[in-house]
């Protein structure tokens, strides 16, 4: 990462890509890791993808429907991702990596709340807590819940099964095909980019970053190359009878287990939203202690 | 069995940038024949192959596959009967796993999923790659990728196999195995390649292209020993016919 300046060389704005090369490859591997998880066999992966889609949607709606300052009410909902991770035998490490990757966005969204909203709304003993801090924490909690639910949906179903489930639930086929192709082409573009960056790194004398000027010509080139490659892939797809729609290899079967899963989750979400389980549990514990 | 015939007559093709890639190409390939298409870089081999399954449509002249002329209306039938294996298997394999990729063609043919699954098993077994079914294509070696790409085409049970540089990028052992595999197929085969030794092994007949025209068409053994023809078209004797590199005899 240390950038060595050569004497007599023009100074450039430097964007750091090195050791970005390794980071880039590991980011690609991460996406593929998620895809590999979906190929595992566990009760979670055996669920009908449609059931996972419905439950995830219900979960997201529940999470965002809480009022702005709510934190305690969100806590019981952690059970849903936690149980999925445990039953689905999914590695927490991959999940955490993704959450960290997306965390800056959530932090940015809530960053100014403590500054703008200074009215005291709660007291923790001697500590006065302003509404801004509460809503900031609430945003972080919602972020953790929603993003992990989305990642778990992907890890439990796999991208193509997910798209075909969305199609079966009524999403226009044109859209699901777009999603599937987009996902394929990400890898193609990334592959080309990887090769170009490698070629640059091997021939550049700079120890650190890549000058902005090189970046701009590289991205232009990447667009052309990716376009070319995309055309070749498309030709190969046409040769195998592609007619604009991606067809799925499996017809999913909805079993009573799926119905049970959807009903149980829906019941739990309703309880978490309207039944205040944290408060009930607290009162019950206090009663027992008395 | 008239439907495995490929007939090209007066084929001309001009790319949008003005390159006159094919200038009146004509030939007829009969059922069960194995034909090599050879020529220097830029001679028009790849352009010609792209016409055989309608990826490109003729500017002038006609291409007939079996009972159908290659036109926009006949494309689905043409693409089922002509299986095209592209030069770079990376362009062909794009699904998350090998079995999904091999199933891509059969599913596009609207076969029911069970039938498609059976086709996947059969064609992977035919290229000795049944063990690769669940692997993601980007993890495979060059030889394995090539086998998977061929299986993907076989799954559509084509009558005619068109291969573009099938041995490029393979190590000697993988190349040898591929040649043995292709020799076992009973399809009509059309193979474009620079690997003239492989053409000698697999094709009884060859068509030499030069600057977008058919320069020669005849038995491979005669064409590939004709030094004057080879020099004129930018080619060389197959390695096995060249002198010993040590004693030059």
Give keywords.
heterodimer; A: 290 residues; mainly alpha; 2 domains; two-stranded antiparallel ribbon; 11 helices; 4 strands; globular; disordered N terminus; B: 249 residues; alpha/beta; 4-stranded antiparallel sheet; 10 helices; 10 strands
pLDDT average of chain B, as an integer? 90
Structural class of chain B comes to alpha/beta
Low-confidence stretches of chain B: none
Note the gap between the termini of chain A: 60 Å
Strand order of the largest sheet of chain A: 1-4
Number of strands of chain B: 10
- Portion in beta strands of chain B: 15-25%
Rounded mean pLDDT of chain A is: 82
Q: How many individual β-strands of chain A?
A: 4
Sequence of strands across the biggest β-sheet of chain B = 6-7-8-3-9-10
Helix and strand succession of chain B? EEEHEEHEHHHHEHEHEEHH
Task: State Rg of chain B.
Answer: 18 Å
Looking at the structure, what is the overall shape of chain B? globular
Task: Report what the structure shows.
The complex is a heterodimer of chains A (290) and B (249). In chain A, β2 (120-124) and β3 (127-130) form a beta hairpin. Chain A contains eleven helices and four strands; from the N terminus they run βαααααββαααβααα. The termini of chain A are far apart. In chain A, the strands form two sheets. A two-stranded antiparallel ribbon of chain A has the order 1-4. Chain A has a two-stranded antiparallel ribbon with strand order 2-3. In chain A, α3 (79-88) runs parallel beside α6 (131-157), α7 runs antiparallel to α8 and α8 packs across α9 (212-239). By secondary structure, chain A is mainly alpha-helical. Chain A folds into two domains: 1-39 and 172-253, no CATH class; 48-171 and 255-290, no CATH class. Chain B has ten helices and ten strands. In chain B, β7 (160-164), α7 and β8 (188-192) form a beta-alpha-beta unit. In chain B, α4 packs parallel to α6 (142-154). The longest helix of chain B has 14 residues, at 113-126. The relative contact order of chain B is 0.17. Chains A and B meet through α1, α8 and α9 of A and α2, α3, α4 and α5 of B.
